[in-house]
Design brief:
alpha/beta; 11% strand; globular; eight-stranded parallel β-barrel
Length: 322
């Protein structure tokens, strides 16, 4: 289905520019995504970089104060950086608010001993180096799901495929969702479709993809897409607030991720970064409020997926017995 309200949404400055003879061409209905989340809705929200129970509490308090709806909260340091008690507390608090909690799995190349990732080429990036790194990611996945977590963030295609096979065989819960990290996000429709078939339930694309790139992807895949509306500096620092309505029109079903530019990195998190982490957690929620206000002003705030919804709907997969 093509969403009529998204197609008809007002673009920034439209009336004034039209009055000055500077109006933009009409939007092409063929550019609009034909996909939506199951149960209705074309967009969900995500607050990233929520690194522990204290940061989660700040996010929940600020979201209530600013009336920011949240579908998913994600963490970037990794399952291994949290105690069992911390994971249990975060899972319980998220569930109580109807929010999906997503934790990052295991070892990654940027923190490993391999030298290529520190070369100019960046080598294999975040991918899991060797059998033991894959095993560490699987260990994190099993531990997290046993403690109530139902969404796992991955940064390696082999780990993604392994965890997808694990859930199809019952080694981890079948309703576990797998989210692809922005740090390995696909940049073309062919690779996006491969991630879907490897088991991805949502795919974080780099924030520098053009609107046409999103349309190209949506012509081959309906798998939910994640995108930083404001990206951290290590992902480019892009700020795409004024494009939110068009990003939804082109990219739905889309998770709007509210990151921060001009903020120091906090991974892997520890208490030495406490004040920074809590302050940036609070500001990410405020950025969400700003984006939602823009959507409302542009007449495009409708079609949010129901709060509490988390599953991706039917997706295409490679056979797991191949």
């Amino acid at each position: 289905m093509t969403d009529a309200s998204a197609t008809a949404a007002r673009r920034p400055g439209e009336q004034t520019l039209t009055a000055l003879g500077l109006g933009a061409p009409a939007l092409d209905p063929a550019d609009a995504s034909s996909h939506a989340f199951p149960g209705g809705g074309r967009w969900r929200t995500e607050i990233p970089s929520c690194e522990g129970p204290e940061a989660l509490a700040v996010v929940l308090d600020e979201a209530a104060r600013l009336d920011v709806p949240i579908h998913r909260i994600s963490q970037g340091s990794g399952v291994w950086m949290l105690t069992d008690a911390e994971i249990t507390e975060m899972a319980g608090a998220s569930a109580a608010h109807g929010i999906e909690l997503c934790l990052f799995t295991g070892p990654r190349g940027t923190w490993d001993t391999g030298g290529s990732v520190r070369s100019d080429s960046r080598g294999a990036g975040l991918r899991a180096r060797g059998h033991d790194a894959v095993a560490g990611c699987v260990e994190d996945a099993v531990r997290a799901t046993e403690l109530g977590v139902r969404c796992l963030l991955v940064a390696d295609e082999g780990v993604l495929w392994t965890l997808h096979r694990a859930r199809t065989t019952g080694l981890i819960p079948a309703d576990t969702t797998l989210k692809v990290s922005a740090l390995i996000g696909p940049v073309n429709p062919a690779s996006y479709a491969v991630f879907e078939r490897l088991g991805a339930d949502s795919v974080n694309v780099p924030s520098d993809l053009t609107l046409d790139h999103l349309t190209e992807i949506r012509r081959v895949s309906g798998a939910p897409m994640d995108m930083y509306i404001e990206a951290p500096d290590d992902l480019g620092g892009y700020v795409r607030m004024y494009e939110v309505a068009e990003l939804i029109r082109r990219g739905a079903p889309l998770y709007l991720k509210f990151g921060l530019s001009k903020a120091p990195g906090i991974y892997p998190y520890g208490h030495h970064l406490r004040e920074l982490t809590l302050a940036t957690a609070r500001e990410r929620v405020r950025r969400g409020r700003l984006a939602l206000d823009l959507l409302a002003r542009h007449g495009a705030a409708g079609d949010m997926a129901p709060l509490g919804s988390r599953l991706p709907g039917p997706l295409h997969r490679f056979p797991t017995d191949a």
